[in-house]
Amino acid sequence: MTADIAAKPADMPFITPRAVAIDGPGLAMDPAHLRLNLRTSPLAALATRDPGGHPFATLTNIATDSDGSPLFLTSQLALHGRNAAANNRVSLSFQPLARDRRGQPGAPSRHGRTAALAGLVLARARLTVSGHAAIDDDPRVRQRFLTRHRKTAAFAQMQDFHIWRVTVAAGHYGLGIDPVDLILDLRDAETLVAAESELLATLNGSHAATLSRLASRLAGALPGAWRATGIDPEGLDLALGDETARLTFQQAVHSPEAALPALELLLDEAM
To answer: Is residue 45 a contact partner of residue 57, using CB atoms and an 8 Å limit?
Structure first.
């Protein structure tokens, strides 16, 4: 079997299909749960291929674009940056969601926060995606990453640093995942994407106390001055220092005008 695997061509599908279904305890294949995990993680293990063809993995800060495509920041002088420039096939493995208050895997509802990087992870399903990485110099994309990871701003000002976007080709979470289950179609949400900066300023200004309450009540996060770092049709990304959380709207939001009413519904849910 080992020889057969080694003989497969380099352009084979990103994640080899499994002929036998694996059914394990706590294995959640709900696409909404997978997108929650993808959106919430502030860190991921980034795997690239070095010039000799060997895998090279490193931890990196991660964010997502409005559609859910993973974003990372790296220097073209760093080994993984040089690797990705030479061979754009990459893989990312994300932190699992925190267990709920009953000790169960994942989130107890549509909302969630990330788990601490400690303890046994072998019993936890981990979300992994594979795809193609490319530099994305769109100022909106850059701002979305820096809003989530403010401490990286000094690095982002250096000429050799760029934001990279990963176009997801496959996913894995115990079983194979179709990219359509991870990446949103934004054709009806152009105005929401364009107004994101203004919406975040409003939310972090006059609605800051509401965000803190929702993070604690719905996502199970510790109390604190949580701030909104991103909004998309499905939900709202939050951060407090190095901690992250996500709130999922009850109904899809496709325009700036629908954002505050959606927040009010979440507030009712938290009562």
So the answer is: yes
